[in-house]
Design brief:
Distance between the termini: 97 Å
Radius of gyration: 26 Å
Order of helices and strands: HEEEEEEEEHE
Structural class: alpha+beta
Strand order of the largest sheet: 2-9-8-4-5-7
Number of helices: 2
Largest sheet: 6 strands, mixed
Number of domains: 1
Shape: globular
């Protein structure tokens, strides 16, 4: 038989149950898909075709044909992209600086890639800028035939702003200025690597 005390205990349990349910942690929100990038012509970590190098037939020293690059899943709020291609095996002037093969900044947020064979020129039709150690152009891989393969890294950054950076006379100064201006504005990053050395 129920007595007054039993009923009181049951009422207290009944009142506490919704509180326990309400305090359960909410399920974590699904993480946004990571930004991705693909460089046409070779797999990530694979051999860069001669076609995109300084060793291609008819290519002037320090120049080359840029590969097509595509990307997806930019983070919300992206206002521009920066592409930094560099040779990680080069030591420049006894510093941590490596070779600047292609720096492209203020790529519009609406862009989903770069076409193969981007023409020379400091400012591109879409308003972005480009530079390399050769000049206002893509500089293809050029590692010597007698040494090890060099590691070429393509880094794509999604920014929450456009950069107020003009090309300087020196590509390395320009790259430094771009990297400094990016600080505090990077929303996401994608990386793609390739190996190259000149054919024997």
């Amino acid at each position: 038989m129920w007595n007054t005390r039993s009923i009181g205990v049951l009422m207290m349990i009944g009142l506490a149950t919704p509180l326990l349910v309400a305090q359960q942690p909410a399920a974590p929100a699904a993480a946004a898909p990571a930004m991705t990038m693909t460089v046409a012509g070779f797999p990530d970590g694979g051999q860069i075709p001669v076609k995109f190098s300084q060793a291609a037939e008819g290519v002037a020293p320090g120049e080359g044909t840029s590969p097509a690059i595509t990307w997806g899943n930019p983070p919300p709020g992206t206002q521009s992209f920066v592409l930094n291609m560099h040779d990680m095996d080069v030591v420049r002037n006894k510093t941590t600086d490596d070779q600047a093969h292609w720096v492209v900044w203020n790529i519009p947020a609406s862009a989903t890639g770069l076409p193969e064979g981007v023409p020379k020129g400091s400012q591109r039709p879409d308003g972005s800028y480009q530079i390399s150690a050769t000049g206002p152009m893509y500089r293809g891989p050029g590692a010597g035939a007698n040494g090890p393969h060099h590691h070429y890294m393509f880094e794509l950054f999604a920014l929450d702003t456009k950069l107020d950076v003009q090309p300087a006379a020196d590509a390395f100064d320009t790259r430094t200025n771009v990297m400094k201006a990016m600080q505090g504005h990077i929303l996401g990053k994608a990386v793609y690597g390739g190996l190259f050395r000149r054919p024997q």
